[in-house]
Design brief:
single chain, 313 residues, alpha+beta, Glutamine Phosphoribosylpyrophosphate, subunit 1, domain 1, 8-stranded mixed sheet, 4-stranded antiparallel sheet, 9 helices, 34% helix, Ntn_hydrolases_N, hydrolase, Isoaspartyl peptidase, beta-aspartyl-peptidase activity, EC 3.4.19.5
Length: 313
């Protein structure tokens, strides 16, 4: 049995100055809650899934982040959320996309994985499934925030550049059995066209988990990550080229950013517990909580995420 760990991120991009402290605090709170749930479950099967949900639900309920309560608005002033989840032990996955006014898209993605025969449900179909299985907290009052309204108005007026704003939240969890779960959730891109779907709910692009390869999550401008099938590419590159996971993550970020100038970031855990975090963006909030180690977190990637003695940034 291996020590459990919970690795979370709050999005790669540009975080407004008034939200930076809260972004780090929120990531640390999510990792802490996720680890507490992991410890509570012990060696139970799929403890990693429960702990990932616990961590991401903290982020979805925190208005600091672009997911759940705090999600950004699309071009019509509406809220459409995406989420995707995958576990390593059998590569089961579930995802939802373009779901209107949902505060807990992560829970609905899990329901698709565990309670349907499908891998991805979208729009009204996803909403209907949620109602049929009794999952999901819906309503504009559950997702609207003054932050989202102000940024929508500023972007529509041309006062705020919508590109490369921090987006997506997520968690990768390794439980005591060594099983992995990757889970991402997002409100998407500010002023996106209604119906736009990014990388977050697309398997291999925004999330991936496999017993042999490990698990990864992407964040940033989805279109740039999708074109590289980012998460699968990262894990496959590390496995095929015998390149360290951290090196592979940074190289891929550099390549994607070099091609597109888009904000991009990844977190990953290898099958043996090696960690990677890399980004090409102004900020990327993150936190790591592991059994027997001090809580760490920051607003940019540490020099070596595998060094438990490295300073908190």
């Amino acid at each position: 049995m291996s020590p459990g760990l919970v690795f979370v991120h709050g999005g790669a991009g540009t975080i407004a100055a008034d939200l930076r402290e809260a972004a780090v605090a929120g990531a640390r709170a999510a990792a802490t809650r996720g680890l507490a749930r992991l410890v509570e479950l012990g060696e139970r099967e799929d403890a990693c899934v429960d702990a990932a949900i616990t961590a991401v639900r903290v982020l979805e309920d925190d208005p600091t982040f672009n997911a759940g309560r705090g999600a950004c608005m699309n071009a019509s002033g509406e809220f459409e959320a995406d989420a995707g989840i995958m576990r390593s032990r059998d590569r089961a996955s579930g995802a939802v996309a373009a779901v209107r006014e949902i505060a807990d898209a992560s829970e609905l993605a899990r329901a698709v994985m565990e309670r349907s025969e499908h891998g991805l449900l979208v729009g009204d179909g996803a909403r209907g499934f949620a109602e049929s299985v009794g999952v999901g907290r819906f309503g504009r009052e559950r997702v609207w925030t003054a932050k989202a309204q102000a940024r929508y108005a500023s972007a529509r007026a041309g006062e705020l550049v919508a590109d490369n704003r921090a987006d997506t939240v997520g968690a990768i969890v390794m439980d005591r059995r060594g099983h992995l779960c990757a889970l991402g959730s997002t409100g998407g891109v500010l002023l996106k066209l209604p119906g736009r779907v990014g990388d977050t709910p697309l398997i291999g692009c925004g999330f991936y988990a496999d017993a042999t390869l490990g698990a990864a999550l992407g964040t940033g401008v989805g279109e740039a990550i999708m074109s590289r099938v980012g998460c699968h590419e990262l894990l496959r590159r590390a496995a095929d080229h015998q390149t360290g996971l951290q090196v592979a993550a940074q190289q891929l970020c550099d390549e994607i950013h070099g091609e597109s100038e888009a904000a991009v970031g990844f977190i990953a855990i290898g099958p043996g517990g090696a960690l990677a975090i890399a980004h090409r963006s102004e900020h990327m909030s993150w936190a790591l909580a592991a059994e027997g180690s001090p809580l760490r977190g920051g607003l940019s990637a540490p020099a070596d995420p595998n060094d438990a003695t490295s300073p908190v940034l």
